[in-house]
Amino acid sequence: MEKIVFEPEEGNPVEFYVLEQTKLGGVSYILVTEEEQGDGEAWILKDVSSPEEEEAVYEMVEEETELDAVGAVFETILDDIELS
Question: What is the mean pLDDT of each run of 10 residues along the chain (84 residues)?
C-alpha cells in the first residue's frame, strides 16, 4: 500500500496510506487513512496542484456536496467500505 506524507500549512506532517484513487470531473482524488490495516477513519484529498508542479499538492475535501459525490464513487469502487 502506498504511503504519502501530508504536510498541512499549520501543524505537523501526517503519514497516510492511500486506499484508492479516482478522477471526477477532471480532478484527481485519493482516499487515505492513517491505519495500514483494519477499520479506521478515512479522508478524501483533492489534487489542487497546477500541471507545472513536480509534486502533487492535496487538500482535504470539506465541501459537503463534493464530499458526498466523491465518497459515493469510492464506495462503489471499494464495495466493502462505507463512508459517512
Answer: 82 90 94 84 92 88 94 85 58
Residue 48 CB contacts under 8 Å (≥ 6 apart), including other chains:
57, 58, 59
Contact (CB, 8 A) for 15 and 8: no
In the chain the first and final C-alpha atoms are separated, in Å, by 23
Res 20: pLDDT: 93
pLDDT, residue 82, reads 59
**DSSP letter string over the chain?**
--EEEE--SSS--EEEEEEEEEEETTEEEEEEES-SSSS--EEEEEE---TT-SS--EEE---HHHHHHHHHHHHHHSTT----
Nearest to 31 by CA among 43, 49, 48, 47: 43
